[in-house]
Design goal:
339 residues, alpha/beta, Transcription Regulator spoIIAA, Heat Shock Protein 90, 2 domains, 5-stranded antiparallel beta sheet, 3-stranded parallel beta sheet, 43% helix
Length: 339
């Protein structure tokens, strides 16, 4: 009888131990799968020990000092390959709002990798105030968790939302930026069709055409800044794709037309704005977005339109289009709205 009881206890002990081990193995398997899934979306950070300083030009502006500002952004990306980056803005004496958005787009670019980016502010108080009031601080780390309330600007970036809702989200952001600008100009927020149209068209073009590889999506940054001295709302849109002349759809369209339409990319850009290059889809009514932007300029509904893409710069208001001695990866759209 004692042997039977002992054997029964032993079997129950072994059975309980087996069940416990199975549960432990199951818990470990779940933990292992979750850890692996997290590792797919988390880059291991190995900060560099060395730091390199990159000095901004005295006139920090993509629309006014295009070549020097592009080279400054390129130097940040080059330095970030091997060391941390210290962005020295102390010598900046003049700046336009587009440069602030361009700087954010640069330091948040995927190519920056594991480099730590830090920096200072301009010594000229008016320029430093522009940075503080633009919304720049909302997108960078501030020591001690200091909060800055931007009084004159808003900066937004492409949301990593589900593709089905992306265009709805884009329209919401465009409306937010436009109403901020009109609120500063008129005292109360109101719609502004031309600026809303430019923003949504730029967002759609980035969604469809900014990538070299079909099906991939590129990030963008959009901002508005109110210039109280000039009484203008200044809009900037920057996509971080490959630029108009390197995008897959655009190059397919222009390969056979490049020699026929113009002798340079500057002339091609002018042709795009004036509606001389048809849509890549071949569908009636498509490809009219950029000409519509140009029409808004000529009708004086928006002002000072400037486009920088690859090694080309265009000014829609003056119809000046020229080649650059530096190449910008992506596309900049800048325009202003008045009361």
């Amino acid at each position: 009888m004692r042997k039977l009881i002992t054997r029964a206890k032993w079997r129950r002990h072994l059975s309980a131990r087996s069940r416990s081990q199975q549960k432990a193995n199951a818990r470990f398997g779940v933990h292992k799968r979750e850890r692996h899934a997290r590792s797919l979306f988390r880059h291991r950070i190995h900060p560099f020990k060395k730091q390199g300083a990159v000095r901004a030009p005295e006139t920090f502006s993509l629309i006014q000092n295009t070549g020097e500002t592009i080279r400054f952004f390129d130097e940040i990306k080059k330095t970030a390959r091997s060391r941390n980056v210290y962005v020295d803005l102390s010598g900046v004496k003049a700046m336009t709002p587009d440069a602030i958005t361009g700087l954010l787009a640069t330091i948040h670019q995927r190519t920056i990798g594991s480099a730590v980016v830090s920096g200072n502010v301009p010594q000229v108080s008016a320029v430093a105030e522009m940075i503080e009031n633009s919304g720049f601080r909302e997108h960078v780390h501030t020591p001690g968790g200091t909060r800055y309330e931007p009084k004159a600007g808003k900066i937004r970036k492409r949301h990593e939302s589900v593709e089905a809702f992306q265009r709805v989200f884009d329209r919401i952001l465009a409306k937010e930026l436009v109403e901020f600008g009109t609120g500063k100009l008129f005292g109360t927020p109101r719609p502004n069709g031309p600026s809303f149209s430019v923003l949504t068209e730029a967002m759609l073009n980035t969604f469809n055409h900014a990538s070299r590889i079909p099906g991939t999506k590129e990030p963008w940054w959009a901002s508005v800044y109110f210039d109280p001295d000039r009484q203008r709302a200044c809009f900037t849109f920057i996509d971080q794709g490959v630029g108009i002349f390197e995008s897959f759809s655009m190059m397919q369209r222009l390969k056979m037309r490049l020699d026929l339409l113009a002798s340079s990319r500057a002339d091609i850009l002018k042709g795009l704005f004036q509606g001389q290059v048809a849509s890549s889809s071949g569908e009636p009514g498509r490809g009219n977005g950029i000409p519509r932007i140009y029409d808004h300029v000529k009708a004086h509904r928006i002002h000072n339109l400037t486009v920088v893409t690859n090694n080309v710069k265009g000014e829609g208001e003056t119809d000046r289009y020229g080649m650059l001695d530096a190449s910008y990866q992506g596309t900049l759209l800048y325009w202003e709205m008045t009361a």
